[in-house]
Amino acid sequence: MADLAFRINPNIILGPYTISRLGAQVHEWGSRYMVIMDPMLNEAQLAGQIMQSLIDRKIESFVFAELAEGPTTQVIGRALALAKEGHVHGIICIGGEKAIQVGRAVAAYYNEVHDFYNFVDGALPTSNSLPCICIPTTYRSPFMFTQDIPVVDSRSHQLKFLRVQSGVCKLVLTDPNLMLTLTDNQKATLSIELISIAVEAYLSQKANFFSDMFIEKGLEILSYGLDGSPTLDITTPAEVLLAQAGCLISLGAAASSVGVGTLLSYSIYSRYHKSKSLISSILLPFQLEDVAKFKLAKIEKLAHIMRACPEDSTGEDTAKQFTDYVRQKIAKGGLPTRLKDLNLTVDQLSLPVEDIKAVNLINNLPRSMTTDDLFDFVKLAY
């Protein structure tokens, strides 16, 4: 068994209205910040509230919200140039994965003198990063606690992973109230994607007692947020439970690894700009059916934690009940069930399959998968 080596770099603050303390929290790292913000927060009239916390502490800031293209290398390059022109002391990123990934990359490469594409092509940073403060507004962020940043290479539309310094992120501040802006459809897809990330981390070849602890507790809390409890009087609001579950499962994924669903969702997104959450939710039932063939005991445990099966259920019946539970959630949310529902052809999907074979994380899957194995899996879900 390999040694466990895991470092949690950022402080984590999670709770309602914590966003009002943003200015007080970031003051120790500087007085001028670039704020990389999801434009949806402007539409939800939350941007002013967030910025007021900085103004109250006399912290200068300016906003970068040009995230429509997603976390592409072109977007990161533009944001990096603006940050350098602004001589900022740190980066605050607020939003979903687009904002978080762009913000972390800008902080990581701010002090580098080499061309940014050197790092896209595999070079490692040699300078210290700027402090980065991450404020997620969705439940999941499987890479936020890692040294990896998935981005879209604008030259090829391929998925690339940037490898950055340890400790880029100084603070993760999670305010469940910011998640109240999510639509019912977004909540449904994000919840299923969160289950997918948890399953992948729990079944990965890199899974360990530490990651299992995070995943098991995270899924237990997630089940309360989604389905309540037949025996406990749950008074914690659902958005708080989902935020807590997301934080724990993201930590578990960092201590273990993501799997085939997450990698394919990022790779397909990079090529065709299709929703990562939808792709993950489509692939999850097929992942469960695949891994139940050789990791049945762990699937059983997850099914019982999520109360997706009767208490006395065992064996293959339990795995099937867990898969049925997920498919019922997908149907209830009115979500697509097949990759063909995303208006992509099988031939188009061969490109993102080829792309992820170049990603090191592919070696952490529950079983070894060749390109042909991956493509067979995709065709099964098509």
What does this 3D model show about the protein?
The chain folds into 2 domains: 11-178, Rossmann fold, CATH 3.40.50.1970; 183-381, Up-down Bundle (Dehydroquinate synthase-like, alpha domain). The strands form 2 sheets. The protein has a 6-stranded parallel sheet, with helices on both faces. The mean pLDDT is 93. The chain is of the alpha/beta class. It is 49% helix and 12% strand.
Summing up helix and strand content along with how strands pair, one would put the structural category as alpha/beta
Give the uncertain stretches in residue-range form.
none
What does the largest sheet look like?
6 strands, parallel
Number-wise, the strands total: 8
Total helix count?
15
Compact description:
With 382 residues, this protein is of the alpha/beta class. The chain has 15 helices and eight strands.
Which key phrases capture this entry?
382 residues; alpha/beta; Rossmann fold; Dehydroquinate synthase-like, alpha domain; globular
